[in-house]
Amino acid sequence: MTISAHELSDAIVPNSTRSEQLYQRARKVMPGGNSRTAVFTTPYPVYVRSGQGARVVDVDGNERLDFLNNSTALIHGHAHPRIVEVMAQAAARGMSFGMPTEVEVTFAEALCGRNETFEHVRFTSTGTEAVMMAVQAARAYTLRPKIAKIAGAYHGAYDTVAINNDGSGSLITHATQGIPDGVSHNTVVIPFNDPEGALAVLRRHADELACVLIDPVPWRIGLVPASGDYLTALRSFCDETGTVLISDEVGSFRIGWHGAMSRLGSAADITVLGKVIAGGMPIGAVAGRRTVMAVFDPSSGSPALPHSGSYNANPVSMSAGLGSLELLTRKETQRINDLGESVRRHMAHILAARTEGWTVNGVGSLFRVLGPAVTDASGQRMNLVNLLSRALLRRGVHIGDSGLGCVSTAMGPDEVDSYARAFEGAVADVVAAQR
Ligand SMILES: Cc1ncc(COP(=O)(O)O)c(C=O)c1O
Q1: To 5 degrees, how large is the angle CA 297–CA 300–CA 304?
Q2: Structural domain boundaries, residue 156
Q3: Tens-place pLDDT, residues 48-67
Q4: What residue's CA is closest to ligand 1, atom 10?
């Protein structure tokens, strides 16, 4: 099979008539037919009908292996029977209340049992919101205005962190359009895995910094883990200056049973959680040291940081979360980390044999394939990883357009073998399409 670059980039997949029709309807009622930038592809996205375990079926009836798992949120794959059961039971008791429920206490106990730095926990509905509350908690605790973040790293759709988040890693501060100068002025960027470079920036702003916000395995800048030296430098800076170290583990918590920082040999003051902790339901959580978390405490009068939300600690999400954590045993964490290692080994082997300038990164059950950008015959810049993800889609496997993927507990060696075969074919498609 020989496919041109044009076919790979523009035709998406054969047999996608219903997806195209849905997209035409969507364009009439949503900007660009879209409600989530990350799931947009040209000329139109493939719409999904259902998912079960490791597989999804699109609206035209095509079945695929899902190695994206909703941007790594679905650690147990789709519609895990235990999670569906506990959610259905919770929903039957009532979807949400203007009162706290027992399950939020039980789920908070389960989370606090995972890491000794999770002394207290607070729930939100998304990772974005949890990052927002963690940053506000650091500001309320230190009474300082600025935050430091890693150049290029993504932390959700909150203006203070939607600055220099495009993966480029350049140290120039640039923001999503329309963010006021007053906001971007208070966000400083530090280089990744460069302890001296980061400390030079941090020292310049030390008196004004509320927090250093990091993702210990920042997927957008390549999914390479933070080095021990880097984490030690940031930890020491925060200890010396009373700055709050926030670890955003919305994506990376899954790499270890105690989370990412623990696996990498460090500890945060506040950890931001999301995605896997609720097995696919909307969730976010801020977990950390009592001293900092006390800014939320309303029990002795108005808290330093009042934080309400109609869906905070929603009982259906809490129940899904409890089900998800119960299934995510130490043994299962190790098993999918080993499968992740095996996927990366297969990919590295295929890329080394057939390509130049490609790499695969990752840790635990996460992977990201990175390839070179090229200019096509018409002078357009083309991202080859994007072409690769389209070629995989045609061959029955779904990963992210950015090359991001992960293993779920619904997978085993058979799924890894199928993935490796599809990957080998897709790499051959991309190589052929370039000729
Ligand atoms: C590191 C990180 N932080 C925050 C977020 C935002 O989480 P959510 O999509 O639940 O708002 C994401 C989402 O991909 C993420 O990867």
Answers
A1: 50
A2: 81-327
A3: 999 999 999 999 999 999 99
A4: 127
